UniProtKB/TrEMBL annotation:
Keyword annotations of the record: NAD, Oxidoreductase
NCBIfam families membership: MMSDH (TIGR01722)
Keyword Oxidoreductase (UniProt): yes
PROSITE patterns in alphabetical order: ALDEHYDE_DEHYDR_CYS
Name listed for the protein in its UniProt record: methylmalonate-semialdehyde dehydrogenase (CoA acylating)
GO MF assignments: methylmalonate-semialdehyde dehydrogenase (acylating, NAD) activity
Organism ancestry: Bacteria, Pseudomonadati, Pseudomonadota, Gammaproteobacteria, Enterobacterales
Assigned EC number: 1.2.1.27
């Protein structure tokens, strides 16, 4: 049985731990490898390697760090197909979705390539007589990223490219459910010229995480996962004096207005609800349909679309499946329990995905697309994040009722509205209490040069990921105010006839 080890100081490092976690292919339900659960001392060794590497990397010019990012970008593009297949094997999402995930991560790498501009700081001349002020955006030191199973490429690349480009060293703790891609990324970073110790991978569970959260040499922690864990991460890291950005759960709503383009909206809702088997923090899980006629039309169209969906393994081509399995048997059981709770609490189960099977993959962790109608805000399937292919239709009489439901929900990650009316759309974007807003766009994930983050219990910490917030999170400002006394000017100079270059 292949064992996934750690990556410390530029090389694969065997662990002495006797604890392992199985890694499954979700499409078949079979174990394909195991991953080590690192000891606390092994996490400390990675922190030590990152600490020793920090001074040299921090002093490297932004131009040099950007050139490493440029090479890493090219290597990602060259290896895109191979990396996507690694994601499909361990996560289960369909191949094109894996390519899309890598592409969105690649966009953050492209953003980080501009670090010589992004990390310039500011300057003010003559703030007083003969006095100038300028600011420096300096790296923090050792930073850590703790990432979830649903995006083994994209979420780590929300974090470490900007962290590395700004001069920090980094320790990645990936999900134990799909850990292989982290080591692939580490190998490509080394090939791109990243010095040893600047990027490290530690596999493990809470024992490893708690070392990262409490160790005095770790300066900042980034996390994406469920809200209870995000809150724990934020509280623990903050108590130990670290910067922390902890992104939690979501219950993303959309409002379907009666004037919406119904065919366009239906197609958009389908992809946002069932793409990646609903295992996205930006998945659309609630539609607030304004008016019963509007809801009836939507449900009818959704039923027709769902009947034509292809569900199966992620590498099947010609045609490709629309949706793959969920990550594990335990998560499948949890989703099915949510579906049962919806039935028990009186929602109308229009399409039941609990007993979905795929021929030849009967042991795979498949849950079919599930549709509920007549869901009410007091139901568990409305209140909690299911993280599976379950869509709830809530019928509301008017726009204001819909808006109030979104604003009253504990989560505020993303939201959307489908309408042809510009005034309604503009008012929605002004008044809705969520961090990312889509106008006729179901998954409003911003590009890498903007920042990603929600509101309310979808995030803990003041700064979002990537974009301007990402650069600010991984640097700290130092402001220098200076006055120079009169001095004797040098009278002799040496001429040089070579084009000056910087290293």
């Amino acid at each position: 049985m292949e064992t996934i080890q750690n990556y410390v100081n530029g090389q694969i490092t065997a662990s002495s731990s006797q604890r392992f976690s199985p890694v499954y292919n979700p499409a078949t339900g079979t174990q394909i490898r195991q991953v080590v659960m690192s000891t606390a001392s092994e996490v400390e060794q990675a922190i030590s390697a990152a600490s020793l590497a920090f001074p040299g990397w921090a002093k490297a010019s932004p131009l040099k760090r950007a050139r490493v990012m440029f090479k890493f970008k090219a290597l990602l593009e060259t290896n895109l197909d191979r990396l996507a297949k690694v994601i499909v094997e361990e996560h289960g999402k369909v191949y094109s979705d894996a390519v899309g995930e890598l592409t969105r991560g690649l966009e953050v790498v492209e953003f980080a390539c501009g670090i010589p501009h992004l990390q310039k700081g500011e300057h003010s001349a003559n703030v007083g007589t003969g006095v100038d002020s300028h600011s420096l955006m300096q790296p923090l030191g050792v930073c850590a990223g703790i990432t979830p199973f649903n995006f083994p490429a994209m979420v780590p690349m929300w974090m470490f490219p900007i962290s590395l480009a700004t001069g920090n060293t980094f320790i990645l703790k990936p999900s134990e459910k799909d850990p292989s891609l982290a080591l692939e990324l580490a190998a490509l970073l080394k090939e791109a010229g990243l010095p040893n110790g600047v990027f490290n991978v530690i596999n493990g569970d809470k024992e490893a995480v708690d070392v990262l959260l409490t160790h005095p040499q770790v300066q900042a922690v980034s996390f994406v996962g469920s809200t209870p864990i995000a809150e724990y991460i934020y509280q623990t890291a903050s108590t130990h004096g670290k910067r922390c950005q902890a992104l939690g759960g979501a219950k993303n709503h959309c409002i379907l207005m009666p004037d919406a383009d119904m065919e366009m909206a239906t197609s958009a809702i389908m992809g946002a609800a069932y793409g990646a088997a609903g295992e996205r923090c930006m998945a659309l899980s609630v539609v607030l349909a304004v008016g019963d006629d509007n809801a009836d039309k939507l449900v009818k169209r959704l039923e027709q679309h769902i009947a034509n969906m292809r569900v199966g393994p992620g590498l099947v081509q010609n045609p490709e499946n629309d949706m793959g399995p969920v990550i594990s048997s335990q998560h499948k059981a949890k989703i099915c329990d949510y579906i049962q709770s919806g039935v028990a609490q009186g929602a109308a189960l229009k399409i039941d995905g609990r007993h979905y099977t795929v021929k030849g993959h009967e042991q795979g962790y498949f849950v079919g697309p599930t549709l509920f109608d007549n869901v009410t805000p007091d139901m568990t399937i409305y209140q909690e994040e299911i993280f599976g292919p379950v869509l709830s239709i809530v019928r509301v009489p008017d726009y204001n009722t819909a808006l109030n439901l979104i604003n009253q929900h504990q989560y505020g990650n993303g939201t959307a509205i489908f309408t042809r009316d510009g005034e309604t759309a503009r008012q929605f974007s002004e008044d809705v209490q969520a961090g990312m807003i889509g106008i006729n766009i179901p998954i409003p994930v911003p590009m890498a040069f903007h920042s990603f983050g929600g509101w309310k219990r979808s995030i803990f910490g003041p700064l979002n990921v990537h974009g301007g917030d990402g650069v600010r999170f991984y640097t700290r400002m130092k402001t220098v105010t200076s006055r120079w006394p009169a001095s004797v000017r040098l009278e002799q100079h040496t001429s040089s006839f070579v084009m000056p270059t910087l290293e």
